[in-house]
Amino acid sequence: MWDETIALTGRELKKWLRTPASVFIALFQPLVWLALFGSAFNPTNLIPKSFGPVIITDQMRQSILQDTFANAPNYITYLTAGILCLQLLFNSAFSGGSLVLDRRFGYMNKLLASPISRSSIFMSRVFATIVKGLLQATIIFVIALFIPDGLRLGSSFGAIDVLLLFLTLFLLSLGFSSLFTAIAIRMTKWETLIAVVNLLNLPLLFSSSALLPISSMPDWLQTVANINPISRAADVARTLIIQGSIDLSLLASDMAYLFAFATVLTVAGGIASIIALRTE
Amino acid sequence: MDKVIEAEDLTKIYTGGVKAVDGITFNVDSGALFGFLGPNGAGKTTTIKLLTTLASLTSGRATVLGYDVSKDPDKVRRSIGIVPQDLTIDNELKGIENMLLAARLYHVPKDVAKDRAKELLDLVSLQEAANRLVSTYSGGMRKRLELIVGLIHEPKVLFMDEPTLGLDVNTRKIIWDYIMKLNKEKSVTIFLTTHYLEEADALCGMTVIIDKGKIIAQGSPDQLKEMVGGEILQVELSIEKDLSNIFYSVNGVKNVKRTGKSYSIKLSEAPEVIPAVIEGIYSNGAKIKSISCSKPSLDQVFLEVTGKDYREEETAQAAMHRTDLINRRG
Q1: A106–B87: do the CB atoms touch at under 8 Å?
Q2: Are strands B189-194 and B33-37 parallel, antiparallel or unpaired?
Q3: DSSP labels for B189-228?
Q4: Burial of A122 (0-12, 13-18, 19+ CB in 10 A)
Q5: Which residues make beta-bridge pairs with B293?
Q6: Minimal C-alpha gap between B149 and chain A (Å)
Q7: Chain A contact for B106, CB < 8 A?
């Protein structure tokens, strides 16, 4: 089973790397979000310079910002963690895309008539998506560091934080790509996939702490945002970036939540796919 | 083992009630090039799907190389190769990559796979194009690659679903040559579906004709043609006089149909009978305005067994298919 999964994952990645346009465009979107949200909609600018007779000093503005945005030194630092999650979500959303094409072009029948484990068809798409996503996340992370007034890492940020950050993003991507792969497993139309992705993507994103703190949301949305795994992943990523992993107990419950999220969706998606791929 | 495929009372009813295959029984001998002939929608692809484990049987039983397709699908899958109707080669991979990927899915060791791939690419003259992306191939080249990708794990049986569909006449002949070469040189049993009568005629030793999910005739193309009788002589005469009885008196004439001055004469053994017929015409003072002799075709077999013209059937099916597509697009 593993050999087949690796072979099919290789197929996905080879094809991806051969289409530089798709690699580039996939990177472009999160960078635009980073630039637009980080600069144009930068909420720091919403804090007035004075309020009636009261002058609000830069120092005060900085402290209001840090209070609101999880102690981030600037909004882009707060946002980068969210954009990394956004990028993995958008990337995962199309993890079943190649399945739709394989059905359309008959390649799926060839796979089904060969003696491979049915789960390798599912797992190969999930793994390929995770590899793509983490590669793109790395690039976005590096670019964010070089943006003027961009991402500022906490003083204690080190190797262990990088590892934990990637583990977090891995879990988020594993969960979402399993979900979206299972959704696409019997789809024959690309249009249907796009409709489903559009339906899910933005609501998932805006009901999370990826772009703005949960405390700024109405109560009902806070409830949703708290169970949204994107919030958990963004919070962990943020803690790691801003404070480092000094206090692991702060991260433990969110990490456990993400672990459960990824496990449940992988197992459920895998089983659903095997059932869906059974002989008619 | 002499029987590579044994199908007994094979039936497939799709959810929705469409009876695609309706109780068919046939055997395929080892080493055969077996033709499964019928118009579009006759149940050919469904039969292939049943035999290659892509669809489940509603009733009946089928074994491939002795393995039951319902009980032992994995063993069947391991021992067969498939050339599907659609071009299923991955366009965005190179020719050789497609072959090595297939080899990995069938657990062929890498060095063995490389040797075999080289040999197979040579066999269909694709060695030069092996390192190019398939998207740069012509339709004929793709089909050739498709033929050999299904052989990388040296299956004992190769299923081909309409291997020359949509190819031009020349390319079709080239593919025919390769199919016969694979059958002989690799001694692989080939089960091939087609709706081209001349294809079954040119390639297959044994043929089954299927229509509306049922087998309507079965035998070698020669035997099938024997069913309709021998050759057919078309003559147009210069005079109105009815010469039918003269023709009937010639030994070897089986049947005469007259429309005015034109006759359609069914012969048993053509070479000796034709001169006798011509002599009969001249001795009765008539002259020949035109004469032609047509070999019996599977076309006529189809007409004989179903009472329908094969081509008409084709067109009707195609029209139905088109409306179906339009409806589905809605």
Answers
A1: yes
A2: parallel
A3: EEEEEES-HHHHHHH-SEEEEEETTEEEEEE-HHHHHHHH
A4: buried
A5: B233
A6: 11
A7: yes
What would you measure as the largest C-alpha separation in chain B, in angstroms? 78
| pLDDT tens for each residue of B94-122 | 999 999 999 999 999 999 999 999 988 98
Contact criterion met (CB below 8 Å) for B187 and B31: yes
ipTM associated with this complex: 0.82
CA-based nearest residue in chain B for residue A189:
B329
Q: Does B97 touch chain A (CB under 8 A)?
A: yes
Strand partners, B206: B34
Residue B215 bridge partners (DSSP) = B210
pLDDT confidence of residue B310:
62
Q: Count CA within 13 A, CB hemisphere, residue A272.
A: 15
Q: How far is B85 from chain A (nearest CA, A)?
A: 8
Q: What's the sign of the alpha-carbon dihedral B47, B52, B55, B56?
A: positive
**Residue type, position A158, single letter:** G
Look-up of token digits 């019996």: B296
Q: What are the backbone angles phi and psi of residue A51, rounded to the nearest 5°? A: -130, 100
Locate tokens 């309706």: which residue? B22
Nearest CA in chain A to B58: A280
Strands (E) located in chain A = 50-51, 54-55
Q: Which residue of B has its CA nearest to A102?
A: B88
Q: How far from B216 is each of B21, B37, B219, B302, CA to CA, in Å?
A: 12, 10, 11, 9
Residue B165: list chain A partners with CB under 8 A: none
Residue pLDDT, tens place only, A117-160: 999 999 999 999 999 999 999 988 988 888 877 888 887 888 88
Distance CA A84, CA A237 (A): 9
Q: Give every CB contact of residue B26 below 8 A, 6+ residues apart in sequence.
A: B5, B7, B208, B215, B218
Instruction: Supply the angle between the helices A97-104 and A159-184 in degrees, to the nearest 10.
Output: 30
Return the axis-axis angle of helices A2-17 and A20-35, rounded to nearest 10°. 80
Cβ separation A279–B104 shorter than 8 A: no
Gyration radius (Cα) of chain B, Å: 24
Q: Nearest-CA distance from A269 to chain B in Å? A: 22
* pTM, rounded to two decimals: 0.82
Q: Which tokens hold the place of A46?
A: 């919403």
**Distance between CA atoms of B247 and B280, rounded to whole angstroms?**
7
Alpha-carbon radius of gyration of chain A: 20
Check A280 against B56: CB less than 8 A apart: yes
Do residues B209 and B34 touch, judged by C-beta distance below 8 A?
no
Chain B neighbors of A11, CB-CB under 8 A: 90, 93, 101
